[in-house]
Design goal:
Elements: H1 8-36, H2 45-71, H3 74-90, H4 109-142, H5 148-168, H6 174-200, H7 220-247, H8 252-271, H9 278-297, H10 304-328, H11 336-361, H12 367-386, H13 393-418, E1 426-433, E2 436-442, E3 446-451, E4 454-460, H14 478-484, E5 493-497, E6 513-518, H15 521-529, H16 533-536, E7 540-545, H17 548-554, E8 560-565, H18 580-589, E9 590-599, H19 608-617, E10 621-627, E11 638-644, H20 647-653, E12 659-660
Helix pairs in contact: 1-2, 1-4, 1-5, 1-6, 2-4, 2-7, 2-11, 3-4, 3-6, 4-6, 4-11, 5-8, 7-8, 7-10, 7-11, 7-12, 8-10, 9-10, 9-13, 10-12, 12-13
């Protein structure tokens, strides 16, 4: 029996809290992730850890909704949920006051989850349960169907995601955002309680739980199908986000765009999905998957725009196809809360796999490639089961052809990274953690440390050259001039944020004191065990575990003669190290005639514009030294920004070096406002 739809007035009563609750649910995600970045050392994995928490709490919200609607009478359900809303609002606390002490160094995935649970756990649970509860209650109390409420929920999620980077972040501080979110939560609470009151007055006792001729109970095979169709897009979402943030920058914009496309695929699939769209979506998926495979096989050598477009097309089309299959398998309204619970379970399992399982199982980032292969497998099975009436012949053939091209490319890219050819060298050590992937390789030139896809240190193997600085730190670079400058008779105090293999220690003189700050304990271990720059230095060398900005922020002024910023992982930018507030910390620790140097070498972003702006805001003169690759001296293309209080000191220091003009207008980053869009090459 087909049920009628809710009236316009009824729809508004339930639609508004559904929409607002979903918007609040997704506004708070990038807000909290951004706030946590400095405390987590700017690691790209910060967002993955946050997503694990959000997906788990979403699952808990759906589980609560499923339990509530199946165990209590409707009026008892309404009373309990109203009480929970009031308690959640009363206990609401979004952000702690001291971000510098909330997370441990090393592997803070569970610490991030614990912190988020303490600050926003109960309100998030209430928000997560609103959409399935309101839809189930409306269907039961008024004997009316409201499948569009799920689309309303996802539309609210889309609006919430867009609101943070485009409406809130550019104009409001995090503290103001926090207060606004609290106020909006109380608006949600009031509208929800009004909707519950309307349900209470709607004679709910006339429709007991489990009545109204429910359709057949879903089988175990159906639930497994829902689970897989939700799990695979979740892996694709997190794998795509990880790929973008590891190679570009961990920041809200690059978190929001993939999540936005993921949610839009739900909106389309559950409100306007048509079987006729399946063919174009398959074509888009095949093109995106082939682009993913080719870029992965080329070791991310494609341009930034090509990587962005290819990754996002593959993500959206794969999610649309999987979620379209989910929408087509939607059960009778009586079983909706269980259906949504399984979908949330699949999403949470994807988060657990990427955040916790993959770092233990893999030594590199393979999740995106694995997710793409799973998409092909799932869609081929669905096409086989559904037949030609739902999957046109040309769509099935395109899927087969795409899998024949993309899957070998994806598999080959994984094999090359996991088992590199001998001509690339012998892998001495490799590991992966919350902070990224590390690999030590013996090559014909010498021993190399790579972080992600970028070489971060090379120690030459040729006898007598083991103490020669190389790569970004070698002869002719801006940092070499800084390290070689100054009177040799006076002992210097030098600080370096980011250890690498300790190459800069080779510039140490007797009496000098080098202080290296490194967030990743594995880097310290490898630098001391597999390389000798630290041990061979003539200077006194210390290494401190922790994020350099946070450690310096808590320390008294150090009067460093040279302070170096080189804490980059892969090509990802540690945004929190380049903000105006960070420069204020550095200035407090810089001697009156000291030099601040920043390695701004980057394939995709014009970081000179950011550093110049932060230097100017801090009263520092700034010049950029750009040097080209010099194979004879084992030097790669490098850009160094050199800053000092006295511009005359920079003039004498950089005499004869190739200076670079500004690549564009200055772009000032702050802890509250930072965007990579203006500085993309």
């Amino acid at each position: 029996m087909t049920r009628p739809s809710l009236s316009l007035r009824q729809g508004a009563i339930f639609g508004w809290p559904t929409f607002l609750g979903a918007a609040l649910l997704f506004v708070v995600q990038p807000m909290l992730g951004k706030w946590l970045l400095p405390a987590a050392g700017g690691s790209p994995a910060t967002w993955t850890a946050c997503m694990l928490f959000f997906q788990t709490l979403l699952l808990a919200g759906y589980a609560y909704a499923h339990w509530l609607t199946g165990r209590l009478s409707l009026r008892h359900q309404l009373a309990l949920h109203a009480l929970l809303i009031v308690v959640a609002g009363a206990l609401l606390s979004i952000l702690p006051t001291d971000r510098s002490a909330v997370l441990p160094a090393g592997e803070p995935v569970l610490a991030i989850a614990g912190l988020l649970f303490r600050t926003v756990g109960l309100p998030y649970l209430v928000l997560a349960s609103s959409a399935p509860l309101l839809q189930a209650w409306a269907a039961r109390a008024f004997q009316a169907e409201a499948p569009w409420l799920y689309a309303v929920s996802n539309s609210g999620s889309v609006v919430g995601l867009l609101a943070h980077p485009f409406l809130l972040e550019p104009w409001l501080s995090l503290e103001v955002e926090r207060s606004a979110w609290k106020g909006a939560f109380w608006v949600f609470a009031a509208s929800s309680i009004l909707a519950l009151a309307r349900l209470w007055r709607g004679n709910p006792a006339a429709v007991p739980a489990g009545d109204a001729e429910p359709g057949p109970r879903p089988t175990g095979a159906q639930r497994l199908r829902w689970l897989v169709l939700a799990f695979v897009p979740s892996v694709m979402l997190l794998g795509a986000t990880q790929h973008l943030t590891v190679d570009i920058a961990p920041m809200p914009l690059l978190w929001v765009v993939p999540l936005l496309l993921y949610l839009l695929s739900f909106v389309v699939a559950f409100s306007a999905w048509r079987s006729a769209w399946r063919g174009p979506a398959v074509i888009a998926w095949v093109i995106g998957a082939v682009a993913l495979g080719a870029n992965a096989f080329a070791q991310a050598a494609f341009s930034l725009s090509t990587q962005l477009v290819g990754t996002l097309v593959a993500l959206f089309s794969s999610c649309l196809l999987c979620h379209g299959e989910l929408a087509s398998a939607r059960p009778d309204p009586r079983w909706l809360t269980g259906y949504y619970l399984v979908i949330a379970s699949g999403g949470a399992l994807g988060g657990v796999f990427v955040s916790l399982g993959a770092p233990l199982a893999f030594t590199d980032y393979y999740e995106l490639e694995l997710g793409a292969v799973l998409v092909f497998g799932v869609l081929l099975v669905q096409a086989q089961r559904s037949g030609a009436e739902r999957w046109p012949r040309f769509a099935q053939r395109a899927l087969l052809l795409g899998s024949a091209i993309a899957v070998p490319l994806l598999a080959a890219s994984v094999l090359v990274r996991a088992l590199p050819p001998k001509r690339q060298g012998v892998v001495v050590a490799r590991s992966r953690s919350f902070l990224g992937t590390l690999r030590v390789v013996d090559t014909a030139k010498g021993r190399v440390l790579t972080h992600g896809r970028i070489q971060h240190g090379l120690q030459l193997a040729e006898p007598g050259l083991g103490r020669t600085p190389t790569l970004y730190f070698g002869v002719g670079t801006g940092i070499a001039r800084v390290m070689e400058g100054g009177p040799s008779a006076r002992a210097r105090r030098l600080a370096v944020l980011g250890l690498g293999i300790g190459t800069l220690a080779t510039y140490g003189r007797p009496g000098d004191a080098f202080a290296f700050f490194e967030l990743d304990p594995r880097v310290i271990e490898l630098a001391r065990r597999d390389f000798t720059f630290l041990a061979d230095s003539a200077a006194a060398v210390t290494t401190t575990l922790g994020d350099g900005r946070l450690v310096l922020d808590r320390a008294p002024p150090q009067a460093f003669d040279v302070l170096v910023l080189d804490a980059f992982s892969s090509d990802s930018v540690p945004v929190h190290l380049l903000t105006r507030e960070a420069f204020g910390i550095y200035l407090r620790h810089l001697a009156a005639e000291g030099v601040l140097a920043a390695n701004i070498s980057n394939r995709f972003l014009s970081l000179d514009r950011v550093v110049r702006a932060s230097a100017r805001a801090s009263g520092l003169a700034c010049v950029v030294v750009k040097t080209n690759t010099d194979p004879a001296h084992h030097v790669v293309r490098a850009e160094w920004a050199l800053m000092a209080r006295d511009p005359r000191a920079l003039t004498s220091l950089t005499e004869g070096l190739p200076l670079s003009g500004a690549s564009g207008p200055d772009v000032l980053w702050t802890d509250d406002h930072a965007s990579i869009v203006p500085i993309m090459r």
